[in-house]
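Revision sheet: structure tokens.
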Amino acid sequence: MKKNIKGFTTRCIHDGELIDYKYKGAVSPLYISTAYDYLEVEDHKYPRYFNTPNQLALSKKISSLENCEKSLIFGSGIAAIFASMFSFLKSGDHVVFQSSLYGGTINLILKEFKKFNIEHSLVESLEIDDYKKEIKSNTKLIYIETPSNPLLQIIDLELVADLAKKNDLISIIDNTFASPINQNPANYGIDIIIHSATKYLGGHSDILAGTISSSKILIDKILESSINYGGNLSEHTVWLLERSIKTLSLRVKAQNTNALKIAEFLNGNENIKSVYYPGLKSHPQHELAKKQMYGFGGMLSFLLKDEKKSDTFTRYLKIIKPAMSLGGVESTITSPSLTSHSKISKEKREKFGISDGLLRFSVGIEDYDDLENDLTKAFQKI
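Predicted:
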């Protein structure tokens, strides 16, 4: 784990920036070439090798934010998820998964693992002893997500990392919901940190990307396979992502503040059955979240007392937009059963605790009073 004495906002802006030596511009220059002189330029630069100037610069910024040695930038979050696992797995191996994961990850596990004769266990509990029970002689990885999508469950990072190390396993976390501003899993011993950069890192609902951060040894191993998978990010999007991350700290802190207020408002509303947000004292893992997170994040989920009215309620919202993604500056709301977890059967969704009426709310940076007013008016119409 790297130590960094600079603050998050300073690192977001300045770490990993490319210097414009010719014109002295304040922003990183964009190098769009896909062809470099192999005789004059060291490290034979080629976009698919993850080593072009903008790719390398941005990877340094992300590594700094996650307190890791190296990072890679991919064309999507799921590409990063795939590479993080399949760079280490072979036929006959086994992986232990937390069951409360992003739906795309669950779908990848259920649809792709069997093609390669890779076994898996889905652990419904958050207790570390239940993960320990699933470890076999052929287990290679432990994969978790905290806060989880969409129920905002929190698992103990330190205990997971310790279990992995004691059993010579690689620990992987999807850190998308937290963002590096709210949580640095490397500080607790987690080996590999993944982000769907489409979400908070991009932050404006206009970039598709993914990242992996880890030690040099593990990133070099992932790179060997990723060059063959061809999932690198284009230079234009790399440049846009680097620009977006400059405001990451400011955006996320504003979203943290709004989300906590929204969660408290919803928690006391007569139309609400349940609210899932780690910042609430009623959340079962609230104390753990306080221990391992700097802020509680901009994501929450909730259930209406009359779950059948969830779609109707969503249609009445005017500022908060119905949208599939999350983490943008604008507030969005979605039904996981119709979007992020739609590829999972209804039976499995219900087993994971995801009812058809559940609404996932990505809180933006709008003025809080406007968000509360939007929700209040929608409640009055259902």
